[in-house]
Design goal:
52% of the residues lie in helices and 12% in strands. By secondary structure, the chain is of the alpha/beta class. It has 2 domains: 162 residues, Rossmann fold; 130 residues, N-(1-d-carboxylethyl)-l-norvaline Dehydrogenase, domain 2 (Orthogonal Bundle). Helix 7 crosses helix 9, helix 7 crosses helix 10 and helix 7 packs across helix 11.
Length: 300
């Protein structure tokens, strides 16, 4: 039997997730500030409602995936947030990429209002939601995780309980640290090979059979070779997430070296006006194309 679920944030991840939940037989209501996204939810068979408070009132388990902390706070603790529904026993699954301490504190504030929260960020971009090849890393009480596990597992290749509240967020920071930096490193590798006279055909053949082989090279490498900048994981998101990794590392006495260097290249791409483009566009910063783009942006 399906559950009554609610999705707060119907963006590039939230709406596809809602669609997949409905395919699994769940009834899904949702809220977003963008009327067009609400219309898309209705067309997919979901029920748009006027606020996160209404989402909570109609759901047994709510989910949120939003960009900024203030968006999450407003939709959880604000006057039109899930806590305002006064629904004791509600479970909230917060899937955004945020600071682990911040997520842990939010869980505490919601617990004081009778709501159990899991921090359950996602590894994998929006195009992998439909193929159910994303993974969840979930922090929180084991019994609450077990309650939502039957919902999460069919949506993903893996859903892992990482430990207490905040550990899911920590695992996501660690994961992004590798993915973000590796994207920059792959761009460096390809640009050096190109400038040194290697063909794409030769590089693809050799690298796919070498120690470089793997999912990062297969997916990100392909976009870098073809200069495919259609947005999946945006430049501006990489800048944000790498800043988060640097902050978390410092809190634990670690001065990262590779991440700050890679982040500078993504910041150059962002300054050129490419913040909404796929992170693979960092390759054009390595090629120096960002400087002309930044000058053009300033003249507008």
């Amino acid at each position: 039997m399906g559950e009554k679920l609610g999705m707060i944030g119907l963006g590039k991840m939230g709406l596809p997730l809602a669609r997949q939940m409905m395919k699994d037989g769940h009834a899904v209501c949702g809220y977003d500030i963008d009327p067009e996204r609400m219309k898309m939810l209705k067309e997919a068979g979901g029920t748009p409602v006027a606020s996160a408070k209404e989402v909570a009132a109609a759901s047994d388990v709510t989910f949120s995936i939003l960009l900024k902390p203030e968006h999450i706070e407003g939709n959880t603790l604000g006057p039109r947030g899930i806590a305002a529904a006064g629904k004791k026993g509600l479970i909230h699954v917060e899937m955004s990429t945020m600071h682990p301490t911040w997520q842990k504190e939010l869980a505490g504030k919601l617990a004081a209002r009778g709501i159990e929260m899991l921090d359950a960020p996602i590894s994998g971009s929006h195009n992998r939601v439909d193929t159910r090849t994303i993974s969840f890393m979930v922090g929180g009480k084991p019994e609450i995780y077990e309650r939502v596990r039957p919902i999460l597992e069919p949506l993903s290749v893996d859903a892992t309980h990482t430990g207490p509240s905040g550990t899911g967020a920590t695992m996501k920071v660690v994961t992004n640290l590798f993915v973000n930096s590796c994207t920059a490193l792959l761009a460096e590798m390809i640009v050096v090979g190109e400038r040194a006279g290697l063909s794409h055909e030769v590089m693809r053949k050799c690298l796919s059979k070498s120690s470089v082989q793997g999912l990062m090279f297969e997916q990100t490498g392909a976009r870098l070779f073809s200069r495919d900048f259609a947005p999946r994981g945006a430049v501006e998101i990489f800048v944000k997430d790498m800043g988060l990794a640097i902050e978390v590392a410092k809190e634990h006495g670690i001065e990262l070296q590779i991440v700050p260097a890679a982040r500078r290249m993504f910041k150059r791409a962002e300054a050129a006006g490419w913040g909404k483009d796929d992170a693979s566009r960092v390759i054009e910063a390595y090629e120096g194309k960002d400087k002309a783009a930044a000058r053009s942006k300033r003249r507008r």
